[in-house]
Amino acid sequence: MADGLRIAVRALVYAVVGGAALIAIATVASVLGPTLALDLYTPPVAAWWTVFTAITVQGVPFLLLGTVVSAAIGAFVPERVFTRLLPRNQALAVPLAGAAGVVLPGCECASVPVAGSLMRRGVAPAAALAFLLSAPAINPVVLVATSLAFPAQPEMVLGRLVASLATAVVMGWLWARFGREEWLRLPKAPAHSGKGLRAFGTGLEHDFLHAGGFLVLGAGAAATFNIAVPRSVLDLFTGSPWLSVLLLAVLAVVLCVCSEADAFVAASLSGFSPTARLAFMVVGPMVDLKLIALQAGTFGRAFAVRFSAVTWVVAVLSSVLVGWWLL
């Protein structure tokens, strides 16, 4: 009981201190802005700050959810559980792990630490990566949100489910066949390993603080793109169905919309084709700037660059094929 109370107090302190630090940074920047010739109240900078804050606030709760699940797996779940649940044959383990993504109601921020914890527990990287891609894309919260965003288009919900699951499974199989050990830096266990509440608290602290910095980095990159690229440039692509698919697939990477909210953004893009909007919803939860930053921090830059690039291509192709079939 005492250990549990100390862990709860420690988690609360980290949350309060982290929030206070962000507020202090914003306050100092606002006060020193005129001195540094940086006007924080101009429309472009205000827009940057709004997008950055929105992405960070969206991502942190789900990042915390992912790190809690990750720490719980490491502290309370025996390794033999995973070896019994998943087949030893990776070709069979990958689709099973991909389908298991429906059980985690979180976004891409949550899936990275969970996948890292699965690898530490002995799960084959190909299966863990399939789970990493599918969890934020096909969980019940995302599918319900998609049905609400497209109330008269149940085929859009089915298309998202099929295209996302297909992408996750194909990427798992590709990694099992072509992936190299030197590309993937397996995440290290916290310094204090073991079992019980103490190990849970240590793992939670380690994963949350480590991944949180890369979430902020990705949010900053996405906000910069939002104010740097004129909207008139984006309008040039709406006339071509093929270019519109590629454009929204690229926008999904840089806008970093949470997977629970991206369906409403896609529904608002009425000038684009249904297939292009499907690509936006399939690519976003699997490849965006904050997710690339999280993957680089967890698994290494060499992995993040290769894996994200191939995932983007596979996700676009899956969206086009499913869109041609269903939409």
Q: Give the overall pLDDT as a whole number.
A: 78
Number of helices: 15
- Return the string of H and E elements: HHHHHHHHHHHHHHH
Number of strands: 0
The coarse overall form would be: globular
The major pleated sheet works out as: none
Description:
- This protein has 327 residues and is mainly α.
- The chain contains 15 helices and no strands.
- It is globular.
- The termini are far apart.
In a nutshell, what does this entry contain?
With 327 residues, this protein is an all-alpha fold. Helix content is 77%, strand content 0%.
Layout of helices and strands, plus pairs?
Blueprint (H helix, E strand, L loop, with lengths): L1 H31 L10 H34 L2 H7 L4 H10 L8 H13 L4 H14 L1 H10 L4 H25 L17 H33 L2 H5 L5 H15 L6 H7 L5 H10 L5 H11 L1 H26 L1
Q: Keywords, please?
A:
single chain; 327 residues; mainly alpha
